[in-house]
Amino acid sequence: MTNIESLQQQILDASNMRHATKVFDDSKVIAEAQFTTILEAARLSPSSFGFEPYQLLVVQSPQKRELFRDFTWGANGAFNDTSGQLGTASHFVIFLAHTQVNMQHNSDYLQTFLKDVKQLPDDVIAFFNQAYQKFQEHDFKVTTDRQITDWCGKQAYIALANMMTTAALMGIDSCPIEGFEQDKTIAVLEEHFAIDPALYKPAVMAAFGYRVQDPPRGKTRRTMAQLVSWY
Ligand SMILES: Cc1cc2nc3c(=O)[nH]c(=O)nc-3n(C[C@H](O)[C@H](O)[C@H](O)COP(=O)(O)O)c2cc1C
Questions:
Q1: Closest atom, ligand 1, to C-alpha of 75
Q2: Does some domain include residue 183?
Q3: What is the pLDDT of residues 114-138, one digit of tens each?
Q4: CA–CA separation, 43 and 212 (whole Å)
Q5: Is residue 10 situated within a structural domain?
Q6: Which of 92, 178, 180, 219 to mutate to test the pocket of ligand 1 (most atoms within 8 A of CB)?
Q7: Residue 202 above 90 pLDDT?
Q8: Gap from CA of 206 to ligand 1 centroid (Å)
Q9: How many folded domains does the chain comprise?
């Protein structure tokens, strides 16, 4: 087998191995260096215009995780009579999407971001501002606070996917989580994490760790022909 064939096989094996893990082995902790690699996969992810319009909260305190239990039906184990991903995951991440305040074209935040993070000269920043304004107002019509926040959430999902794939390549299990009430999550984030809801909204969550057991059913997916059309 050539190197590339072996890599292809590793990717396929990891993709087949990855499943939305419902219960993790709470005695197993992901090694720090490996979780750092997972976070690097998020940090280095692509995002539209390169704006990285998201924040990650890694919630390791069991007490803090419990604050979400009542209304996080997709991770509280209610369906399988366990403490769920919230109670058993080695690492638990909440992805926040930026709102309109920071991600509206020409915002103060974006000016600082383009200057300090992207280190762009003023004329290129002016070009970015113009192009992004056109994108928001004309091309994609992303103009309301809700639309902008959802667009930022879309970017966060790319980081999420890269984190899960990276984890799977290292034999680490994961579960993406949208099973939560947004309003109550926003309230907990504001009260207990000092997250200003005017600036950030929860987009999605993810749990990482090691499965207790293999999933009862194998993968069910549409065929490649049902999924992909070639022209
Ligand atoms: C954005 C997103 C949100 C999800 N939310 C939950 C969730 O709250 N709880 C859960 O157990 N699984 C959740 N899932 C897992 C899906 O149900 C699962 O990925 C899908 O059924 C395919 O199964 P597989 O990932 O095991 O291959 C979510 C998946 C995605 C991509």
A1: 9
A2: yes
A3: 999 999 999 999 999 999 999 999 9
A4: 29
A5: no
A6: 178
A7: yes
A8: 10
A9: 1
The string of pLDDT tens digits covering residues 40-70 is 999 999 999 999 999 999 999 999 999 999 9
Atom of ligand 1 nearest to the CA of 22: 11
For ligand 1, the distance from its centroid to the CA atom of residue 227, given in whole angstroms, is 18
Say how far apart CA 181 and CA 205 lie, in whole Å: 12
pLDDT of residue 82: 97
Side chain identity at residue 142, one-letter code: V
Nearest protein Cα to ligand 1, atom 27 = 19
Q: In the sheet that 54-58 helps form, which strands lie side by side, from edge to edge?
A: 54-58, 91-98, 200-209, 173-177
| Residue list, ligand 1 pocket, CB within 6 Å | 19-20, 22, 74-75, 175-179, 204, 219
Domain annotation covers residue 169: yes
CATH number for 201:
3.40.109.10
* Residue 41, domain extent: 18-102+147-212
Cα 23 to ligand 1 centroid, rounded to whole Å: 13
Residues 6+ apart with CB under 8 A from 31: none
Residue nearest to atom 21 of ligand 1 (CA): 20
| Domain presence at residue 138 | no
Q: Which residue has the tokens 């909440």?
A: 94
Cβ 98 vs Cβ 54: under 8 Å: yes
Q: Is the pLDDT of residue 1 over 90?
A: no
For the chain, how many residues are written? 231
